[in-house]
Design goal:
By secondary structure, this protein is mostly helical. It has 16 helices and no strands. Helix 1 packs antiparallel against helix 5 and helix 6 runs antiparallel to helix 11.
């Protein structure tokens, strides 16, 4: 009895010890992401246009930081596995703080392109390091493994809050100060993240590498290649972001061509993102309870229906209804792939795996608008949306089939069905 009481007491203390860690990681991420989003829309296009960038070069300036993340996230994840999460979180925070002050020195579009390339290092570090740290909160104790998707949902909820607040704050500042000065404000705001980051130091001591860099890299990639959940999670994120970013890029142009007031499209994205923000912890909890693949499959099917019906939305109420379903679909999809991966990955390579999944996601963000533009060139906006909807629907059916087969195999194993194996 005393042993049981001690175990329960230890579990409680463990949980109480871990809650502040998750809160501090989330707070730091929220601060730097909000500030970073201030520097993207509408500030960055206005600043670039003021320097004389044409439309093509402006698109390159906006997307180059995403390309940096796609290429470098696995590397920084691997480095955090090797030397510890905290030191790289500090490096990323210092980059978020320092780089915005350099925008005052930019005078040409080419200089801005190079600075955006460097600025992308901050997100390339923060992405895999923070996600790996959140996942490790469950790996350290059996008591919280089962709520991995829910914890990722809460963490992502705070991160996505930056997508809502950042552009609004930047737009308000642009009405009173110059674009270059707004970047200085961004640097000052990012410095607030130093407090939670410094408080995290005692929770993640620096690691002393026990293997050579070459051996650890080889081990990480070997483990990654042998972990089907990593490829499944990465490909899921890639496909979903491919469809979502294609729609996000061209929906405003489709609205103008169709005579839909642009205000409706603005409301669509606001309602969609707010729904996603509020429902994401619920999606994570549902995935923990009902299984990751079935919930992701339902989310992708709901997203497919939402995309497929967009060309038929000719009233504000119908459009906002689709925004609600689209946001709910995102909330059902996104916490689950990372949680599925966290269950199976070797804890020594969590950061490298999270970085690889992040690279898949960034590839989808880049490829989505390119594929969407190609489809529009050959057909029209409606066909582009229907094609993306079909892609998500096919993947949804494939996931349901995979989940059904897996459940059948477990059922056979539990009930002892004999299977003869011929060698």
């Amino acid at each position: 009895m005393n042993k049981l009481i001690k175990q329960e007491s230890g579990s409680y203390r463990d949980r109480m010890h871990r809650v502040p860690v998750l809160f501090k990681i989330t707070a730091a991420d929220f601060m730097v992401r909000t500030a970073y989003q201030m520097g993207k829309t509408p500030l960055l296009p206005i600043f670039a246009a003021g320097l004389g960038a044409n439309a093509t070069f402006l698109g390159l300036i906006v997307s180059v930081s995403t390309l940096t993340g796609m290429l470098l996230k696995p590397i920084f994840g691997l480095l955090s596995d090797r030397w510890g999460r905290w030191i790289w979180l500090l490096v990323g925070t210092l980059l978020f703080i320092g780089i915005p002050f350099l925008y005052q020195l930019i005078h040409t579009p080419e200089e801005l392109l190079f600075l955006r390339l460097v600025h992308g290092l901050a997100t390339a570090i923060y992405g895999p390091v923070t996600v790996a740290w959140v996942m490790e909160q469950g790996q350290e104790s059996v008591s919280s493994v089962d709520n991995c998707a829910e914890r990722l949902g809460w963490f992502s909820m705070a991160r996505n809050g930056g997508y809502l607040l950042g552009p609004t704050i930047a737009a308000a500042l642009l009405t009173v100060i110059e674009p270059a000065t707004v970047f200085t404000v961004i640097g000052l705001m990012s410095s607030c993240a130093l407090l939670p980051v410094l408080l995290l130091k005692k929770f993640n001591s620096p690691k002393i590498p026990s293997h050579s860099w070459r051996q650890q890299t080889a081990d990480a990639f070997r483990v990654g290649f042998k972990t089907p959940e990593l490829w499944l999670a990465g490909s899921l994120e890639c496909v979903v972001y491919l469809g979502f970013y294609a729609a996000k890029t061209f929906l405003p142009l489709y609205a103008l061509e169709s005579g839909i007031p642009i205000l409706w499209i603005g409301l669509f994205f606001s309602v969609q993102e707010l729904t996603h923000l509020l429902a994401r912890p619920f999606g994570g909890r549902l995935s923990d309870r009902k299984g990751y693949l079935p919930v992701v499959s339902c989310g992708m099917l709901l997203a497919a229906f939402s995309l497929g019906l967009l060309p038929l939305a000719n009233t504000p109420s119908f459009l906002l209804l689709l925004a609600l379903s689209f946001g709910l679909a995102q909330a059902l999809i996104f916490p689950a792939p990372l949680a599925l991966f966290a269950q199976q990955i070797d804890v020594r390579h969590t950061g490298a795996g999270a970085g690889l999944i992040g690279a898949f996601k960034n590839f989808g963000k880049i490829a989505g608008p390119i594929l969407g533009g190609w489809l529009i060139f050959w057909q029209d906006y409606s066909w582009m949306l229907w094609s993306m909807a079909a892609l998500l629907a096919v993947w949804s059916c494939g996931l349901l089939l995979r989940a059904f087969i897996k459940k059948s195999l477990i059922h056979k194993s539990e009930y002892g069905e004999s299977i003869s194996v011929h060698t």
